[in-house]
Design goal:
Shape: globular
CATH topology of the largest domain: Metallo-beta-lactamase, Chain A
CATH class of the largest domain: Alpha Beta
Distance between the termini: 23 Å
Structural class: alpha/beta
Bound molecules: zinc ion
Strand order of the largest sheet: 6-5-4-3-2-1-22
CATH architecture of the largest domain: 4-Layer Sandwich
């Protein structure tokens, strides 16, 4: 493996999260120090226990000096227990909310991973003990706090406004700065502060999930959610909202809380049918000090922003099954966000064949997932081995995306374009990343590229 030649040369290696939106995993080496940013699971197909996730790490995990976690989505933290199992013993850093949420996410994902491993007659990707060991290595730092590292490197987190506790991580050395954006929030978010601006990055590793697309305007999203709930009630139908347990669920609850309390929608039972989402919502309430000013003011004024008349939280499988026998109309929020597992698929199997029902997609639907297949207008979808006809309406509200759109990403890079020697577009499907790179070159004149897995580049830190 190549090592940095001089004190003023760093090497950046793209181990994962390139050419795809998941599996974030980057290595930065320099000043005698070896650092990692994120260690995520590869997802997006029907399985998460694929061989990409089982493959040994292409370096010795024991040789790494620290791991920085931008946020708690499983495609950024999901392989950490394996890293620890394989010999990593150094500190893991994130913000305090990111630590708590990552713990909930990692314990929860064990169930899925175990089920898949059993099906394939393989040992699980990692055991509970590995998650516990990872949590013992975990340290927290707040936004803007200096984290001094060996060799004179200083790390800092900045708010990326993507999910609660999410960060960009910047490494300063010799007056130079390398910034990894993690995922960048689509501001304004109902709950979170806007992502901080970066104006002084010499090297920028930036996400590009929506590098080739723009979202609908923010004002539209709440109005459309209101209209869809109203229609569901009027037609005595069922509204299914597959939602990611982290952030999307809390955003939707927050919006519905406001619609209910302002009596914009008629009374209707709203089921939150996901143990993980219920748990994460509790962590959001715990760390509400990290919300934006507007949300904090509401809470200070006495509003329990994730609770309202009609909300039913269903923890157990029996409670979840009982939703089927509850009267219509009703709204069901459940995971997984791309309909490739979780409780939502049982509801989809029951309710998709009826035209008075609606499936509302509010998150990113990766290529190949049932969510994307339904979004693309398929007449049937395979659920639990059965071809289910889709007669329900399938609607998408893209304004709820937790990622900056193409224009937002351009604006973000624009602020640091005069300083940036190089911009690397990562975390995008090839089409999105390459389109974004071309746009950066054409409109901002920056030196941009979309790296391939395993690519390593030398960074000049003089
Ligand atoms: Zn994310």
């Amino acid at each position: 493996m190549a090592t940095p030649k001089g004190k003023e040369e760093f090497i950046l290696t793209f181990w994962g999260g390139v050419g795809t939106v998941t599996g974030a995993h980057f290595m930065l080496e320099g000043a005698g120090t070896r650092l990692l940013v994120d260690c995520g699971l590869v997802q997006g197909h029907f399985r998460v226990g694929d061989k990409e996730n089982r493959a040994p790490f292409p370096y010795d995990p024991a040789s790494v000096d620290a791991l920085f976690v931008t946020h708690s989505h499983i495609d950024h933290v999901g392989r950490i227990p394996k890293l620890v199992h394989d010999g990593f013993t150094s500190p893991i850093y994130s913000t305090p909310p990111a630590r708590d949420i990552a713990e909930a996410m990692l314990y929860d994902s064990m169930g899925v991973l175990e089920k898949e491993a059993r099906r394939d007659n393989l040992p699980p990707l990692y055991a509970e003990a590995d998650v516990a060991a990872a949590m013992r290595l975990w340290k927290t730092a707040d936004y803007h706090e200096d984290i001094p590292l060996a060799g004179g490197i200083v790390a800092r987190f900045r708010d990326s406004g993507h999910v609660l506790g999410s960060s960009m991580v910047e490494f300063s050395y010799n007056g130079r700065k390398i910034v990894f954006t993690g995922d960048l929030g689509n501001s304004p978010s109902p709950l979170l502060p806007d992502p901080e601006e970066v104006t002084d990055a010499d090297y920028l590793v930036i996400e590009s999930v929506y590098g080739d697309r723009n979202h609908e305007p923010h004002e539209e999203r709440k109005r459309r959610l209101e209209a869809i709930i109203e229609r569901t009630v009027k037609e005595k139908g069922v509204l299914m909202i597959p939602a990611f347990s982290l952030e999307r669920t809390q955003e939707i609850l927050y919006e519905i809380n406001s619609l209910v309390e302002n009596m914009n929608i008629p009374p209707v039972p709203i089921y939150l049918d996901s143990p993980l989402a219920i748990k994460v919502t509790g962590l959001y309430a715990k760390w509400s000090g990290y919300f934006n000013g507007r949300a904090r003011a509401l809470i200070k004024g006495g509003d329990d922003v994730f609770n309202f008349p009609g909300l039913v939280k269903t923890m157990t499988t029996e409670e979840s099954r009982a939703i089927l026998n509850s009267p219509d109309p009703k709204v069901i929020i459940a995971g997984s966000g791309m309909s490739n597992g979780g409780r939502i698929i049982h509801h989809e199997k029951n309710y998709l064949p009826d035209e008075k029902n609606t499936l509302l997609l509010v998150g990113y639907q990766a290529a190949g997932t049932p969510g994307r297949i339904m979004q693309d207008g398929a007449g049937t979808v395979k659920i639990l081995g059965e071809e289910v006809p889709i007669r329900a309406r399938v609607e998408t509200i893209s304004g709820y995306s937790a990622h900056k759109d193409s224009d937002g990403l351009m604006e973000f890079v624009g602020r640091t374009k005069d300083k940036a020697k190089q911009v690397f577009a990562v975390m995008g499907e090839p089409k999105a990343a390459l389109f974004f790179v071309q746009k950066l070159r054409d409109y901002l004149g920056v030196n941009a590229s979309a790296p391939m897995p395993g690519d390593r580049v030398t960074l000049d830190m003089k």
